[in-house]
Amino acid sequence: MAKALLEGKKGIIFGALDEKSLAWKTALRAHEEGAQIVLTNAPVAMRLGKINELAEICGAEVIPADATSVEDIENLFTKAMEIVGGKVDFVLHSIGMSPNVRKDFPYTDLNHDFFLKTLDISALSFHKILQTAYKKDAINDWGSVVALSYIAAQRTMPGYKDMADAKAMLESIARSFGYYYGKEKKVRVNTISQSPTLTTAGSGIKGFNSFYHYANDIAPLGNASADSCADYIVMLFSDFCRMVTMQNLYHDGGFSYALSSDEVLAHYED
Predict the structure, then answer these.
(1) In this structure, what CATH number is given to the domain that contains residue 33?
(2) CB distance 6 to 34 below 8 Å
(3) For a FRET experiment, which of 40, 156, 170, 259 has its CA 20 to 30 Å from that of 63?
(4) What tens digit of pLDDT does each residue of 91-123 get?
């Protein structure tokens, strides 16, 4: 019998909300591939979502943590290592929220206090997680950290507003921290630029449905599903990707190389 891809590995998954979320799908796949996982989300998200149902399916513990709070993250890693009996092997950052997007402020008239919240929740939280894990030496050598990004970090997509800036920062943090973590501990840090995906978070973006279908038509392979994204994340957690780090990896059916920014803007203008 073939060995499960993550057999014997242990990890922390941030951001599972409900059955549509990429973190939820990843937790299921990691569990299927033999991993022991700890689930976490912000207390408010836990009240709104179904994380305890997922925990029951995966036999996982749930530790509430606000990813913008270093104190919460420190507590999370301490308790997670107690639960799994040592360091973890992988971490998924699937966190993003913009008050400006939710309230439909145009990019040229953003509320800057909201903008700071967007950056803190969606990007700086990644640095806080990495920095805490680094200081605590909480990830095994050759471990893997993955964060979810989007092509708006690279191309102009007006409907994404300040989340585009947050994703650009997220990818930069992966490159910068990936260098230090790789040199010191051989820990890999990557981001995945996923197709438009029918998740609860995605549905909150103005014009998302039309752009989802547009991307599906343009991409040679069509949009990558949430399930296939979970497969890709699990592969990055595995030992098959031991030499992949500091990368932004497009998982979008070829969409990122099949159009120009002018085409995107024309679509929104239409």
Answers:
(1) 3.40.50.720
(2) yes
(3) 170
(4) 999 999 999 999 999 999 999 999 999 999 999
